[in-house]
Structure formats: C-alpha cells, structure tokens
Amino acid sequence: MKSATPWKAVIGGSVGNLVEWYDWFVYASFATYFASAFFPHGNPTAQLLNTAGIFAVGFFMRPVGGWLLGRYADRRGRKAALTLTVSLMSVSALLIAIAPTYEQVGYAGAVVLLIARLLQGLSVGGEYAASATYLTEASTPGRRGFVSSFQYVSMTFGQLLGLGLQIVLQHTMTTADLHSYGWRIPFVAGALGAAVVFWLRRNLVETEAYTELEGTETERGTLRRLLAHKREFALVMALTMGGTVAYYTYTTYLTKYLSNTVGLSKNDAALVSFCALTVFMLLQPLAGSLSDRIGRRPLLITFGVGATFGTVPLMTTLSHTGSFGGALLLAVTALVIVTGYTSINAVVKAELFPTQIRALGVALPYALANALFGGTAEYVALWFKDAGVESGYYWYVSALAAVSLVVYLTMRETRDNELTEGSRPATKAAVPA
C-alpha cells in the first residue's frame, strides 16, 4: 500500500460497502411498494409510517453493531470485520426477500422484516467504521481525503443501483405486480451480491497501521480505552448530527417526498433521485481531493452554513415545484451542499483516534448520532406531514445543522494528524490516556 493511490484497497473496500448500502437503501426506495404487504390496508401515509418505523429501528441496532464490530475490527483486524459485516448483510437481504405478507401470516411477516432490519443495522453499524478505517489507513497522508471519499462513492453507487433497478422494474412490470412480488427482486439480487463480495473481501490485504500493533496491545478496541477519548467521542457525535439528518433527507427520503408531497409520479420521483445522486457521487472524490489541499474544516463549514440557512428555502421551494427539471435542479443543489460533509466525514473521524481504538472510536459515536438523527429523519418527516405541519421538519433539519456548524467553527483541523502506532490527535483535543 505504498502507492499514492492504493486502488486495489480502494476497490476491495468499496465494493463491499457498495453492496452493504445497496441493501440498506433498497429498503427505503422500495418501501412505497411493499408497505401494504406487511400492514393492514388503509391510509398510505400510515403504512409508510410503519415501514419507516422499522427502518428507524434498524438504525438503533447500529450502535450495537458499532460497538461489537468496531471492537472486532480493532482486535481482529479491518479485513476480518469487513468480511463479517457483508455476511450479515447477505442474510438480512435474503430474509426480506422471502418474508411472508400480512395476508399470509398476519403481523408475523412484519416481525421477519423487523429481524432483517435489526441484522442490517448490526452489519452497517460495523461496516461504516471498518470501511472508513480501512480506506483511511490504506492511503498516504496527502491522499487520505481523496481515498476515503470513495466510501460515499460506493454508498451512493449502491443506492443508484437500487434506484436504477427500481426504474427498470417500473418500466417492465405493472404497478400491481410490483406491489405483489416485484419488490422482492432487489433483495434477492442484494443477497447474491453480498455472497460474491464475501469471497472478494477474503483476498484483501490488512493495513500496515493495524499490523504494526498486532500482539502489542491488550486493550485494543475496549470501552475502557475509548473512555480515554471522551472529547473525541463527543466531537464525532456533534459533527455527525447535522450531516446525517441532511444526508438522509436528500437521499433516502427524497423519493418519497417528491411523490408524496411534491406530487410527481413515482417514476419521475425515482428518476429525479437517480440523476441527482449521480451528480452527487461524482462530486465526492473532487471534494475529498480538495480537502487534502485546503483542509477538512473549510468543507465542513461550507456544508454547515448551507444546511443551516438553505434547508428551509430549498425544501419550501421544492414542495411547490411540480416540474421534473425544477425538482432535479433543487435536489442537485441540496446534494452539492451535503457533499461538504459526506466527502470527508469518514476521514475526519478516523483522524481523531489512534490505531488501537480507531474503529470503535469511529463506529460507536457515529452510530449513536446516526440512530438518533439519521435513522429517525424519515419517520420525523412523515410525522410532521401526518400532523399537517410538514414545514416544521425543514426547521428541524436546519436546527441540527446549526449545532454541527458551531462544532465545525470551533474544532481544530485534522488533515495533518498522524495515524501511526501510538499517535495522538494533532488537535490536542484528546484527554490523556
């Protein structure tokens, strides 16, 4: 891994991340089709609230996955953790694909759906940290922002695959067939894809930063060790808060918002999301590379300002935009703002912790913030809509972004922090071990 850009490591780490997030987001993008399959017929918004609630439950499993698999990655290696997470995701996707409907077994089908989401939450809770840590450690200091940005390239590409498959199915199947059985197809594909990635990840090479520590530290990945970094723990939660709610608002929730509020057809809503996310994906390496030149804070601050002061006017304007072109322009604008966070948030968190606790230090606080603010974003948005005050959600997103903006303005730069054995964050923000 001595090259300026370790493409073998980038591809090996990212392809599994792609499948993980394909399965994670397929649930959200196909929820409008399978919501009625697991719950009694009635109010469509109420059905979406039920499926969104199960979606949120998956997020609350992520802290458990962050703790267990973050510890596993620090004690057994990044490669071992990456292989385990994709195995769990394969099982969860298969469970959703074969889950019985409400008409067949009543609420038992929803229980199977819930179990699958819990497994997904466990898996993704560890995947984020293992992938972020692996990509960061596998790159040279001057290229860490660029290399780690491929985490969100792969995450977004996974979502694009899900949306692309949705568009294909929408044009090749009837709406009735999609509601009946067509929604199962992407979950079958996800399970098979994860099985392939399992084999690919077995051939990854462990990072040098981790191999230097093997056999030298008995408290790697322990909560006791993590408690020596309380300020970094709190910092990760605070800088994640605004970014995660904005990200899920303009990615997983966007398709529902466009069809349920803006009034676009499901086909047009999916196509708007697909085009906007394609632009978003291509921006990630550019922004990550820019952070290697000017630092991480300028990009985070740009996001914070944009999300704090731009969310209300963007979402309000979008709600009154009935055209495909107008919706696409506003969606792209929102995702350009979010890029300031997504392109570098993984590397910033990894740069805050020493190798002995890096995976757990990234995983646990991020997963907690994600569960509290990212996983509930869709549910909160639908709750505001159901209560007749949908604009309240726009202010909610702005308020969380404002909190993160304060953190971005006051935190120290992390770009030049060392990642070698026994290193301490150059920010001097850490509590002495």
Notes on the structure:
It is a single chain. With 433 residues, the chain is an all-alpha fold. It has a single domain, classed as MFS general substrate transporter like domains (Growth Hormone, Chain: A). α7 packs across α20. InterPro entries: H+-coupled_symporters (IPR051084), MFS (IPR011701), MFS_dom (IPR020846), MFS_trans_sf (IPR036259), Sugar_transporter_CS (IPR005829). One of its GO terms (cellular component) is plasma membrane. It is a multi-pass membrane protein. It is found in: Cell membrane.
Nearest-integer average pLDDT: 84
The tally of strands reads 0
Q: Can you tell me the CATH architecture?
A: Up-down Bundle
Low-confidence stretches: 422-433
| Overall geometric form | globular
Largest sheet: none
The sequence of SSEs as H and E is HHHHHHHHHHHHHHHHHHHHHH
Number of domains: 1
The CATH class name reads Mainly Alpha
Amino- and carboxy-terminal Cα gap: 30 Å
- The structure class reads mainly alpha
Q: Helix fraction?
A: over 70%
Question: What percent of residues are in strands?
Answer: under 5%
Figure out the total of helices: 22
What labels describe this entry?
disordered C terminus; Growth Hormone, Chain: A; membrane; MFS_dom; 433 residues; MFS_trans_sf; symport; 77% helix; cell membrane; 0% strand; mainly alpha
Compact description:
By secondary structure, the protein is mostly helical. It has a single domain (7-410), classed as Growth Hormone, Chain: A (Up-down Bundle).
